[in-house]
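Subgroup meeting minutes
Present: P.N., E.W., G.H.
Scribe: E.W.

1. P.N. recapped why we're keeping a running log of single-chain structure predictions: easier to compare across weeks, and new members can see raw inputs and outputs side by side.
2. G.H. added today's entry (384 aa).
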Amino acid sequence: MEDLKEFLKTAKPSVSVIGLGGAGCNITTWIKQKGISGARIIAANTDANHLALQKADKLILIGEKLCRGMGCGGYPEKGSEATRENAAEIKKEIEGANLLFIVAGLGGGTGTGAAPVVADIASELGILTIGCVTVPFDMEMSRREKARDGIKLLTEGCDSVVVIDNSKLREAAGNLPLRDALAVANALVGSFVRNITETITQPSLVNLDYADLKAVMEKGGISAIGIGEGDGEERVSKAVSQALATPLLDISDMGATYGVLIHIVGGEDLTLEEVAVVGEQILAKTPNTRRVVWGAKVDPNLTGKVRVMAVLTGVASPFITGEQVVAQPVKELPKEVVKPMREAVEAIAKHEEEQLAVLTKPAETRKEKIERISKAAVFSREHK
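Output recorded in log:
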């Protein structure tokens, strides 16, 4: 029995999560504050002041010599160079992990430039690497171009890249205000990372095996994510329909999906039969899928409900290829579709308000400015 216990310790996959840039660090802070079992959280940024506010197991100030703790001004090339400056430190922090989540918001400088560099480091170490990124709204044309270029580079080092398009998210969530839509995106990425991590490292109703995860995500290319929630007699069908009806990235052909990763959460009344039905219904709508894996866990707070998160891997997207698509009018979706995302907004609201308070505080006095710069300098020395 003692030998078995020791074997189980070594057999459990090691998971690391690294947040890059402002948006990436905000997401990893959300994960850390919510609590996560089985993963090590790392936050890395070129902006020392923003990094000092984050919650993580390890903080890394990247590009101290190049950026001097003041960010990289929205230039991805500078973000890449800054990350290479700390490549040895990053390699040391992620070495030994079986699975790495790279979390970032693309379209700016640090996240867009740093993510591909970290992915290359992970690839050299033989780590299963999943990128989890958000892209800007349609109106942010230049930032979307940067994001598109960043995704193309990121796919070269990652096994799979889960992309959440903020514009699609806003449509699906009932035309949310800008700030709320950004909060939902953060919460969705955070929930995805947390759910997958805990399902492969902790006992669940149906465990998601690391080997199964690798089979569906390895060399999976671009991935899209959809969520749905249902209650009542047809709760499973409702949840599946919503998850597949609102993927948060434009997909050219859902039928051509290579693999599907399904995560199911329900209350104490969730049955194995319902879990199986979810898989069957999703497979029926993605008939050419070669691999389907799923995991399920129980959340006492969801009694009477079922929540489904479906990740479609190996998809083709007009956004990535640069194809022109005809704009569709934004439709107000039923409340049952909007509700899960509204709950995500509430979950992250407190943290977002704290961040906003920092950004909108009154102009500092000369004394306060000197104290802030001194603290940043100390922070930089301590986190070399």
